[in-house]
Design goal:
The chain is 79% helix and 0% strand. By secondary structure, it is mainly alpha-helical.
Length: 428
């Protein structure tokens, strides 16, 4: 289990490094470099628009890779998704700016961002199921929390590299070539991740499954559509909060509040580091008290904290901003630490890779793709951006309602879906 968890953690960390380094670049430099004819606000919105394309691609990637995961095994998915995302990320660092090739520059950016999202959409399902289907039932949330630490590590690595470059280079150097270095580094990380995964075995659940479903996505759409929609709606607040803190707040504080770029990166990095360290602890609570109670508590805390978080961000003071971010991320991880155990337990084995991954990544579209764009538009004008807080509160209430409609699964065996999880599903 330690070897499996380490391989899953390394893979998700590398995949999310690739994904997050783009978000940081979108907040800091992509607007003026690839959309120079736009105003500052419009350029930021356009850069966040290319950022959102990756989220739109993630459900497609989960459907594509989920098909192969349910038909041919979880292990091949982990290799293919990591290769695709790594190559696309390296290519982003090689795209010339608008000044060099004109409209072809943002067009290439869109295509590569789409490929990034396609690969990441497949990664989560393969990595989580490889761990979940090997883990003992009484510690399934703990072991599956290791892939969930991957986003934190990927974010720390991506922003740590950007922070080092930002501190060591002048603004002119950073805008000219420094921002490309983190993208080029993705190639080495992907190669290391592929080598680490070569010794992994296929899961016993898949080997014992019998005849696979011919079209897993069709089976999910026909028999599990309600469950997919509920999980997508439930997870949307987690994505919205995470990308508000990690991406939108970076652009807002540096452009509108005049906070130094390095100071903001340190605040966000410290917050995510604490969140990653506490993920296994939150997962242990999920094994002890259940998945659904943790999600309901975390979602309720998120709803209550959005206005205080925006108020603390608006001070522009590093310690107050850190406190606001930390409260939001602790509420977030109360939910997402147990999701990697919760979603597989809701689906039967023959469609688990497709169903769990599609629901997870549709939540990313609802919460992650739209939030930086909506928040940037709502933050116009003077004074604290209360519209952003209201928007996040609304998303939180939607998620809370969806979590309330989902069943508890602990300690359901993974051989069958949880009782009552999907009444209309065909029996396993």
């Amino acid at each position: 289990m330690i070897r499996l968890a380490a391989a899953s953690l390394a893979g998700t960390a590398i995949e999310f490094y690739d994904f997050f380094v783009y978000g940081t670049a979108a907040a800091l430099v992509l607007g003026p470099l690839f959309f120079p004819t736009f105003s500052a606000l419009a350029g930021t919105l356009a850069a966040f628009g290319t950022f959102g394309i990756g989220f739109l691609a993630r459900p497609l990637g989960s459907a594509l890779f989920g098909h192969f995961g349910d038909r041919y095994g979880r292990r091949p998915v982990m290799f293919a998704s990591l290769t695709l995302t790594g190559l696309a990320t390296v290519a982003v660092g090689c795209v010339p700016s608008y000044a060099s090739i004109g409209i072809a520059a943002p067009s290439l950016l869109l295509v590569l961002r789409f490929l990034q999202g396609l690969g990441l959409g497949g990664e989560w399902g393969g990595a989580v199921l490889l761990t979940a289907e090997h883990a003992p039932a009484h510690r399934r949330a703990l072991w599956t929390s290791f892939p969930q630490i991957g986003p934190s590590l990927g974010f720390l690595l991506a922003n740590g590299v950007v922070l080092a470059l930002s501190a060591g280079l002048s603004d002119a150097q950073f805008h000219a070539w420094g921002w490309r270095v983190p993208f080029w580094g993705a190639g080495l990380l992907a190669l290391g991740g592929l080598l680490l995964r070569t010794s992994l075995a296929e899961t016993p659940q898949f080997r014992e499954m019998g005849e696979p479903v011919r079209l897993p996505l069709l089976e999910v759409a026909r028999g599990h559509w309600r469950l997919v929609l509920l999980t997508a709606g439930a997870l949307s607040i987690g994505y919205a909060v995470f990308y508000t803190v990690s991406t939108w707040s970076l652009a807002y504080a540096t452009e509108r509040l005049g906070v130094d770029r390095t100071v903001m990166l340190v605040c966000i990095l410290a917050t995510v580091a604490v969140m990653g360290a506490l993920t296994p602890l939150a997962a242990l609570f999920g094994d002890r008290y259940g998945r659904r109670p943790m999600c309901l508590v975390g979602c309720t805390a998120t709803v209550l904290w959005m206005f205080p978080m925006v108020a603390l961000l608006s001070t522009g003071e590093p310690l107050w901003m850190f406190a606001g971010f930390l409260g939001a991320m602790l509420a977030f991880i109360s939910m997402f630490a147990v999701i990697a155990a919760y979603l597989p337990e809701l689906y039967e084995p023959r469609v688990r890779c497709t169903g769990a991954a599609v629901g997870y990544n549709l939540g990313g579209v609802l919460g992650g793709a739209l939030t930086p764009i909506a928040a940037t538009a709502l933050a116009r004008g003077d004074g604290p951006p209360w519209g952003v807080a209201a928007y996040l509160t609304g998303v939180g209430l939607l998620s809370l309602g969806c979590f309330a409609l989902l069943p508890e699964t602990r300690p359901a065996p993974l051989a069958q879906p949880a009782p009552g999880a999907e009444p209309e599903a065909a029996p396993a």
